[in-house]
Structures are given as structure tokens and as C-alpha cells.
Amino acid sequence: MSKRDFYEVLGLQRGASPDEIKKAYRQKAKALHPDSNSDNPDAEAQFKEVNEAYDTLKDDQKRAAYDRFGHAAFDGGMGGMGAGARGHGDFASAFSDVFEDLFGDFMGQRGGGGRRAQRGSDLRYNLRVTLEEAYTGSQKTINVPASVACSSCNGSGAEGGAEPVTCPTCSGMGKVRAQQGFFTVERTCPTCSGMGQIVKNPCKACGGAGRVEKERALSVNIPPGVETGTRIRLAGEGEAGLRGGPSGDLYIFIEVRDHALFQRDGVNLYCRVPVGMSAAALGGDIEVPTIDGGRSRVKIPAGSQTGRQMRLRGKGMPALRGGGVGDMMIELAVETPVNLTARQKELLREFDALSEDNNPESSSFFSKVKGFWDSMKS
Question: Which site from 44, 46, 61, 212 is most exposed, i.e. has the minimal number of CB atoms within 10 Å?
Fold first, then answer.
């Protein structure tokens, strides 16, 4: 039985672009993979046929020969390698190809030119700010140790800025294959370490890497409303790429320090304010601080107890990227006086003797206690 036209196998027209060939191959390979077609006895043969077609059409030289001579271009009579010697349709080779093409892009491990210039790594910097800085926003200067492009070779890795040359071992693929029985083993090229290129005369300043270690001073804009865990991205400020590759990004993680007066909960602030026993009983005005450095007067209702809260609207933290301002909650803590003088003690005893009906919570509690004890006795 004569072989089908390779373009027909992939559902393409002659003259299809490399991207169209790759896209058609992926669709066919996914649809015909034997593992997904256990109920189709012809799936393996069709899968091999698709890989054979793609193996030829993805290579510019093989494709040109096929376009001119057809299948005869790879027969022994044309001076080329026979199908058996070339390994066309070999399942192990087909599986290696389909795995690379289906998952290589996702894993970031495709060979060839894509690996020659590698993107630099992203960096992380932990930055601590005060609550006041988180409220107003600020401008910070940080020193970041990182790899930067070598100025001597302009990041190429070669002395004088010369361009690297294609690796002769892997022909620029960055990896080499070896047939071991039924399997095809693929490994990183030992000559270029997977880069696909080599530097004949490495730069003395960077040793051929194209980058050097250096500390940089960067200005960081801290927007109002940041919280612990807020992440700020500085594009292109990470580690320099290898041999002219693009730089990574710098991620700044914010940590807001604890404050001596205020506790934060999202956009709201809480301030615990101690008040004297007499002020809580009689009521009155107190002055409290606000995060903007100002002061606000708060009226304490007569008979206030510990834990009572009062709200100051608009005195909290701004929401990140707009969205209004939170509130500040004042929480009262009624303070028991200490180190009393003899006269003060005398007055308190006199007050206590006259205050049987002034402590409703105590009266209610001890009434419940009495009921509890009576029920236990009965």
C-alpha cells in the first residue's frame, strides 16, 4: 500500500506555514494518541503516520526534498537513508517527539534557539514599613543584590561583545539523542549545557555568563493603604538574563510593623483608651490620637463600662487603589485606681456604702449565683 501524502495526513495544503504545521500536528497527535484510543486498533498506526509526516515537514531541508521528490526523497534509490535506517514510524521516537511538542512549551524546556538567551530569575525583597507610611504612602530606596548585564561584553558573554556561535555537537538544539534499543534517550548537550550556542572567546569580566553580581539602588513607590502581604512588582528589575536574555522581575513583599497605639483590621483601626473610674461613671470628654497625627474629642456617656466602643468615621486606613477610608474604633478600658491615700479609701468606703443600687450588672450576677446555689441545695 502506497503512503499517503504527508500534507494530506496532517490535513494541510502545500505551502502551509511552520506554525500551521505544528498546530495541525498537535491536534492530530492528541486525537490519535494510543493511550487515548484503546478501542481503536488503527490508532497506533495512524499515530505513527502523523509523526512521520510531521518529522519530515517540520524540518526545512527534509520538507524541501519532500516537496520536490515526494516519498522517493527518502528511499535508498535517491541516495538518502531508507525508512528502516531513518527510524520513520518508530514508536519510541514518535513518543519522544509528541511528548516534546505537546508538553515542551508548557515545561519551558524546548530545545533550539529558545534556550540560547535565557530570561533572568525573578527576585523577592521583603520591605518593612510603619503604619504611618502605610497610611500616607511613601517613597523608599532599597539596595538589591542581583545579577546585571555585563558592561564589558554587553551581555553577550563573548569578549568584545562578539556573537556566540552555534554549538557543533547539537547543531543549536541544546540537546542530543541516542538510541538505546527500543528507547530514544534525550539528554542535555554536554558541550553547550543546553544553550544551543557556545562562546569561543569568553568575556574575562563575566566568565562567559553575560552577567555579573552587583548591588543596585532602586526607588520604590509605596501606595497608601498597603497591608502585610501586599506585593509590588517591578518589571525587568530582577536578575539579568543569561547571554542577553530579558531580565526577570522584582517582587517586593510588604510587612507593616505593629503600632504602639493602633491595631489594624483591614481598613479599620482600633485604639484602646484607658479612662478613670469617676470619668466612666460621670461621663465627659476625652481627647484621642488619630493616625494622621491629629486629635479628636470623644464624648464618654455616663456609666460606660470596659469594652464599650465608639466609632470615629473616616479616621481609619485608606483602601488600597482607592475605595474610601475606614473608621477608627475607640474601645474604653475603665481603670481601677491604685496607691490610694487614707482619705481616698475613706471616701470610697463611704461611696460603697451608698451605692447598693448603682451596680446593676453586679446585682444581676449575684442574683443568678444565689439562684444557682439554691437549686443545688434542692
Answer: 61
